[in-house]
Amino acid sequence: MAKAIGVGGIFFKSKDPKALGEWYQKWLSVPVQHPYGASYKPEGLPGGAATVWCPFPADTDYFAPGDRAYMFNLMVDDLDGALAQVKEGGAEIVGDLMEEEYGRFGWFLDPEGNKVELWQPPAKAVEGF
Q1: Does 34 or 105 have the greater pLDDT score?
Q2: How far apart are CA 104 and CA 74, in angstroms?
Q3: Number of domains in the chain
Q4: How far is CA 104 from CA 65, 73, 83, 118, 127, in A?
Q5: Structural Rg of the chain based on CA atoms
Q6: Which domain holds residue 84?
Q7: Residue 59 resides in a domain
């Protein structure tokens, strides 16, 4: 049987893809190449990194205050610095920082109202994640 071996991308609609891509490039150094978005190679990721695929219940409030049926997560090397940068770029920081054994998390709403979760993986890989 064929099997999925990883997440191949995150695709979503945007009112202005070029402008939104440029915003992410400026404030989070996302390596955007219009019109194809950004690519990250596994060898460039830290040892504790993982890609997670997880359906949430339809009534979850985890994506609030965003009003989309999705939320995406970006790995960062410095959560505090990344949150400060996106705030400077006009993003609204939402929620409180969260620290878990599998990393630190923070959230913001981008210029189009998408809720984005930032994840700083732990320095050491966590078993089973």
Answers
A1: 105
A2: 12
A3: 1
A4: 20, 12, 12, 8, 16
A5: 15
A6: 44-120
A7: yes
